[in-house]
Amino acid sequence: MKIVSSLLPPREIQRSIREKFSEHEFHFFKQMEQVDEDLIADMEILITYAEDLHPEIIDRASSLKWISAMAAGIDRMPIETIEKRGILVTNARGIHAIPMSEFALGLMLSHVKRLADLRELQSNKTWNKWLPIGELCGKTLLVLGTGAIPEEIARLAGAFQMNVVGVNRSGRYLGEHFKKVHPIEQLNQLLPDADMVVSVLPSTPETKELLTYEHFERMKNNALFINLGRGDLMTLETLKRVLEDELVGHMALDVFPEEPLGADNLLWNYPNLTITPHLSSITENYLPRAFSIFEHNLAVYSGKADGDYLNKIDLTKGY
Amino acid sequence: MKIVSSLLPPREIQRSIREKFSEHEFHFFKQMEQVDEDLIADMEILITYAEDLHPEIIDRASSLKWISAMAAGIDRMPIETIEKRGILVTNARGIHAIPMSEFALGLMLSHVKRLADLRELQSNKTWNKWLPIGELCGKTLLVLGTGAIPEEIARLAGAFQMNVVGVNRSGRYLGEHFKKVHPIEQLNQLLPDADMVVSVLPSTPETKELLTYEHFERMKNNALFINLGRGDLMTLETLKRVLEDELVGHMALDVFPEEPLGADNLLWNYPNLTITPHLSSITENYLPRAFSIFEHNLAVYSGKADGDYLNKIDLTKGY
Q: Start and end of every D-isomer specific 2-hydroxyacid dehydrogenase NAD-binding domain (chains A, B) (predicted)?
């Protein structure tokens, strides 16, 4: 059985998986473009970041039975074509909670501790002991969504004695780290109390362009807004107007309506915007964790282990 | 009774304390230099950051019976002169744990998430999704000291699933957040395993110049070293040699052998050193918390409340 990976994990991981599954033929590539026609036609399993697929590749991959997406978002895959063929799809859901919650807390602490201003003072060789510094302790954090990543953000923010509030579709909540969870309809009432608002929402028809200029008008004018989820949470126009009108104290965005940002993009210049290049979930531990899920699923697929697939996607629901 | 403060709290705090203790006469100043001779002679209680006292002031303050230090460190006070006069000294011990532990975690997260490099990418308008980002999760943190502030750092680092190890004089430990505490004699064996080393040690004869060049040689060459305690933990010469020889990956110092750093100080220029101006403990919540301790002690002093003084200093021990 031929297994193709359109991403290149560290040699250590390649060696380990080849050893454990020596009955299969593994082909690792840096990108999809490097995979030749014959191999595309022959591969039964494809390991991918789920951004390099289009209907035409799926058509050519006539032996393909399983796509192992090493990402959480599968919104850039040709779902319809894949569903028609009955191809199994799994993803890497769950491995994002630790790196993304750490990233969120890093941005939050960096903001209250004014690390960027302190860095600026250092480059100006200025000792200013009286720069006003804040705390997370006692502040109110509003998290959009209450899934695995929001839950981990809530747990960490709770450790810092923050008042952590969440919103989701129904307002139902069975976890333990949010102090209170409200239905999304109450968002407008919640925004004025939040010192920080964090979104890690995926892109779905319901979340697309969910946030409007009016939502930002309701936030505190010194609030910190962070989006690590998907860039279509608001339109580019909304984003620019909110920044220009300084409706919040600062924004930190890891995702944008269009990515990557080109060098001529005007967003780079806003002093009230921190830009990071869609990497909050990617750390040294990402591929080890993703391949550990893949190994479990490959053992199930090969009949070497009993049990269910981890993170099997229901394509009709999209998650 | 005349109460002088050589520091100026927000009006809200001044009003509140005047209301609660209307039988006393409060005088608030921005600094000691503004207090006139008569008032110095008449004041019975002095509220101070404990950096503006010298023997000659104590001599002139002939009515002085209580110094309420709104700081933790009292190593810059003329202890001998104060002790001879039998003046009561209290400090603000305990209110530093939250802001300083938040600051430590902020520096740690900023380091692994490479927020300074990401900021640099933004100013160069460069989208680089493949900048290698790290995690706190799974890393080993060594904290020098196991008092209230280290304990809070250990609690937060534990929430991030770090492996938190401590050292203190005896190796005895009754808290719950360190995984293991060793006696200081074992420091050399512990340093090679630490991904991060944090010191919040006060200045005492035992901690003065405790760390030598050889200690840094034993650390990982990508380790992060943070000092938020006192700047005399190592000599200026050690500090410079360690930075020049790049013995560790990065240093973040809030305290220095000599403070403040002048504009001509060479330390500003080291790319492997983050300089912050001795403010890790100072936040918007500092004075509210410090005055809440003072109010308790003033009620005891005035006979309005029973109980003991909070944070009474034993001058013979220095803490």
A: 105-280
